[in-house]
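Action item from last week, closing it out:
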Amino acid sequence: MKLRCVAIDDEPFALELIKEYVSKFPELELLHVFDDAISGAEFLRHANIHLLFVDINMPDINGLELVKSLKEKPIIIFTTAYEKFAYEGFELNALDYLLKPIDFNRFSKAVEKAIEYNRYKQSSTEEQSKSLFVYSEYRLLKVLIDDIEYIESLDDYIKIHFTIAKPLLTLMTLKNVLEKLPADKFKRIHRSYIVSITKIKSILNKKVKLSNVELPISNSYADFIEAWKKS
C-alpha cells in the first residue's frame, strides 16, 4: 500500500523540491501540494492521507497551528528554516523535521522512517511486540525490544538503557512504557526501574544484577523474586 502524501509550503521552490524528492519513492503517492496553509487545511479536513509534509513558518496559519487543528493526524514531517521550532514539533508528536534547504539524503531518512512506522502501525500484535517507537531528540526512533536491558524513571522522562548502545531519553512514564512492553519479558522491580527478565544475571539481597549495574528491588515488588525463580 502506498502512503498518500500532501505537501504544504508557501515557498514554490520548496514545493518543487519535495515533489521531485517524493517522485523517487515508489512507496509514496503525492495527492496534492498547496502554497497556502488555509487551502491545505481545508483539503486535509476531507482527505484521508498517511503523510503530511508541512512548513512551520507560513503566513495566515503556521504549520504548528495547522497540525493542532487536525482531528485525525497523519504522520507529520515538518519542514522549516528555523531549528528553534523543533521542540514545538516534538510536542505535536511529529515523526521528524527537516531543515531547509532540504538535503535529499536527509529527506530519504525521514521518508524511510515514515514508511517503517506506517508498516509498524499496520502490522500484527506479534510483530509490534518486537519493537516500539519513542520520541527522543525531537524525532521518532525505533527501539528493538530485545536490546533493552532496563528502564529508569527520571520524573516525567524515562531513560532506556541498552546492553550495548547508549541510553535513550524520552518523555514518558514507567507505567506507560510498561503497557507497551511484553508482560512476560519485562517486570517492574521498583518505582524507578523496569528490568528485562532475560538480562538478569542474578538476584541477591533484594538487588538485581545486570551486565554492569545492580538495581534495588523495593518491598512493594518483592514478589517479583519468586516469579523470576520460576521463569
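Closing note: The chain has two domains: 3-122, 134-230.
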